[in-house]
Amino acid sequence: MSTNLEIIDVNAAFESAVARQRATLLDRPLFDEFPPRPETPNLEATIRASVARAVDTRQTDALEPGRHDIVMSDGGFETRYWRLSHSPVIEGGEVTCVLQLVEDVTAEVTRQLLLDARERTAEEGAALAFWDLNLVTGKLVRSGGVDSMHGFAPGEVGEDIEPFIERVHPEDRDRVRMEVFSAAEQGPGPTNLEHRLLLPDGTIRWISARGEILPGPVNGEPHLVGMVVDITEFRQNEERLKTALANQKILLDEVNHRVKNSLQMVASLLSLESGRASPETRERLMSASIRVNAIATIHASLYLDGDVTSVAVDQQLRDLCDHVAASSGCDVRGITIDLDLAPIRLCPNQAISLSIIVNELITNALKHAFPGRAEGKVQVRLTRDGSADELVLTVTDDGTGPSEAAGEQAGRSSGLGQRLIHMSARQIGGRIEQSRSPEGWRTTLRFPVPG
């Protein structure tokens, strides 16, 4: 190539690289044959400056890879990256022409561009950055995102880890320093670290570092290599969620408390009214009062363990049975209520329906099973039938059982009590079985195990 960038000769490798024939290139100005693509970098000025330096210094002048797209036979362009160097050809003490060495580095450059794009996407889109810390020397090689996370401008700090340690929140700093530099003792493997940063403007950020300990290329010095992600927004959302859940729990407790108080007030009013009613009406009002009080007890025990999605129904039934026993004077009458309850959790609606059923069955047993008896026993059992994937509630007593004269139409329960039992059983997809024997009365409820 002449010093004016006219093509003097080319070899076969050049022909192949630029998809041209030698005959079409000879004596052609370089940039007439290879015009720049519109809206892309123009290398003409860079190449002319390189050739001028080679002529002036009489030394080879090498350029960094640059993009110059090639016009193809169909008139379209193909993206190419080239590494060029220019060496002066000296004859008789004068530079007569320039030898241009051309290397197609498209694959190499595009691979690096892809890696750079991935890193930028990670940094900008996911607040992610990459780092490589030599655990012996404290030298930190990292992407720009690490600096910006720690509040440093590009190029503000060197490769030492200490400026970054100093940006760690004072309450976390000693722990972070110890965990980072003791990581080398763990040997190869993953390591995780979360901590706060305190930036110069007072802003507190949370970051999560995930890395792996690897032997380095120099004397096997351990390196901690990995990524850092800004999790401040996640932490803030977590705190907002905790606050919202706490407020919800307070509200839920308040609602249950108000419902319980309201139900207890209704039960008290029913009890007062029963004192002025006829004997038949008094009995009905007292039954209603007992039922309302039982439901109030159920609401009082909901969500006591902080779980708003399910209820420990075994504990709830214990509380309910204690209430029924106390309100019915079981200790005075010599009647015991034995409980055998598996630790099972149900959703609130299921727990309430099951509690209503147990309340009706125990109340009916206490009312009808032991006439003229000085003692008696009611047993409540809740188990899981794994073979049928069901829960089984059984309430039995050792009372007299319903008389033949009373008929079997409703067991010992009143018509309202039976309706409450069967309605509540349907609400949880259950089925009721009742039977009597010389030993007493048995009611069995089977219902599906909740998913």
Determine the fraction of residues in helical runs and give it as a percent range.
40-55%
DSSP strand content: 25-35%
Task: Give the overall form.
Answer: elongated
Output the number of helix runs. Answer: 14
Count of distinct strands? 18
SSE class: alpha+beta
| Name of the top-level CATH class of the largest domain | Alpha Beta
Low-confidence stretches: 402-411
CATH architecture of the largest domain: 2-Layer Sandwich
Q: What's the structural domain tally?
A: 4
Determine the N-to-C terminus distance.
81 Å
CATH topology of the largest domain: Heat Shock Protein 90
> What do the pLDDT scores average to?
83
What is Rg? 43 Å
Main sheet properties: 5 strands, antiparallel
In the CATH hierarchy, what is the superfamily of the largest domain?
Answer: Histidine kinase-like ATPase, C-terminal domain
Looking across the biggest beta sheet, what order are the strands in?
A: 8-7-11-10-9
Report on this model:
By secondary structure, the protein is an alpha+beta fold. 43% of the residues lie in helices and 26% in strands. It has four domains: 93 residues, PAS domain (Beta-Lactamase); 115 residues, Beta-Lactamase, CATH 3.30.450; 76 residues; 143 residues, Histidine kinase-like ATPase, C-terminal domain (Heat Shock Protein 90), CATH 3.30.565.10. Helix 10 packs antiparallel against helix 13. It is elongated and about 140 Å long. It starts with 11 loop residues before the first helix and ends with a strand. About 2% of the residues have low confidence.
